[in-house]
Design goal:
The strands form 2 sheets. The chain has a two-stranded antiparallel sheet with strand order 1-2. The chain is mostly helical. It is globular. The chain has 16 helices and 4 strands.
Length: about 325
């Protein structure tokens, strides 16, 4: 058994492994080329996060989906490049909005330079993605535009917050659907469509991308609470400290308070206060790890992964399907 790609994805087929390794290397080379400019400063800024690494989850999905058709089709690697450039661009913008000082273990672009440089660098990456996309044809352009609209809508929904009377959990899932699942879904769609897979397969893989994209984002929520920081790549409880509402906290707030449980009462008091203090933050994190809301968040996450796996059952057995099923297994591992 070998491992390729993020999350310890296992591939047991040598031909699939070799094809994906070759494709990922081609994507990496294309990323370096696409982030170069005649202006050295722009090159440095555009390659700043690229040099910091990343899971390359979306290009991996493009490549795996392409194995339901012809993975050597000329549009596959450029499509993988487009989705990763788009993702990278959103990270530059996200860090400005979140005032994040660090990204992928290195100073964020806005911290190293300033907000204007970070925003304009993100725009530069979007423009490069658009240039590549234009060569993939009008259908690909339309699909990417629709995914990008959903992405921006998700960001706006997150910024605006739920309206009075809205269900905060439903609102949060809508945010994830736009910010994360839309680009993951179009990654799967591009890989299948541009490799010449039949329409039914394209549709199934697109739906799979929707479900697995949501599952992985929710798993990140759980990792922020439950992990030691090694896998998530950030300090445990970062979202908690910054007051970012993620699924475990939203589910807790939706549950009736239990006055007979002093831990429940204390956790709610802490969450209603300032968690910038290290002692209060550590206490809240410990209580949340033991609260039933975390287990409920795990079950919600696994439900999306199970739905993704069920969709794959509509596709023929093949090494690529087995690898995608391995992604569903990875969700379960990440939520433990």
């Amino acid at each position: 058994m070998t491992v390729v790609g993020p999350f310890g994805l296992s591939m047991q087929d040598e031909a699939l492994e070799a094809g994906v390794r070759y494709g990922m290397a081609a994507v990496e080379e294309a990323l370096l080329d696409a982030t170069k400019s005649d202006t050295p400063f722009i090159t440095a800024a555009a390659q700043h996060l690229l040099a910091a690494g990343g899971k390359r989850f979306r290009p991996l999905l493009v490549l795996l989906a392409s194995h339901f058709g012809d993975p050597a089709a000329p549009g596959v690697v450029p499509a993988a490049l487009v989705v990763e450039l788009t993702h990278l661009a959103t990270l530059y913008h996200d860090d400005v909005m979140d005032e994040a000082p660090v990204r992928r273990g290195t100073p964020s672009a806005n911290a190293r330079w300033d907000n204007s440089v970070a925003i304009l660098t993100g725009d530069f990456l979007f423009s490069r993605a658009s240039q590549v996309l234009a060569d993939l044809g009008p259908q690909a352009v339309r699909l990417q535009a629709e995914a990008f609209e959903r992405l921006v809508t998700g960001q706006i929904l997150e910024t605006a917050g739920p309206r009075p009377g809205d269900d905060p959990v439903r609102h949060y899932l809508d945010v994830i659907s736009g910010k994360t699942s839309a680009l993951v879904a179009v990654s799967c769609r591009f890989g299948a469509m541009l490799s010449g897979a039949d329409e039914r397969t394209v549709d199934v893989l697109t739906e799979f991308g929707e479900r697995i994209g949501t599952a992985f984002q929710l798993a990140d929520d759980i990792l922020d609470v439950a992990s030691d920081g090694h896998e998530s790549g950030k300090t445990p409880g970062t979202d908690l400290r910054e007051g970012v509402p993620t699924l475990p906290v939203l589910l807790l707030r939706a549950m009736p308070a239990d006055p007979s449980d002093p831990d429940d009462t204390r956790l709610r008091e802490l969450l209603d206060g300032d968690l910038a203090d290290d002692a209060r933050h550590a206490e809240a994190l410990g209580l949340l790890r033991r609260h039933p809301a975390l287990e409920r968040a795990r079950r919600e996450t696994l439900q999306y992964a199970d739905e993704a796996r069920a969709l794959l059952g509509r596709l023929p057995h093949c090494p690529a399907r087995a690898a995608l099923e391995g992604l569903c297994d990875a969700v379960a591992v990440r939520t433990m």
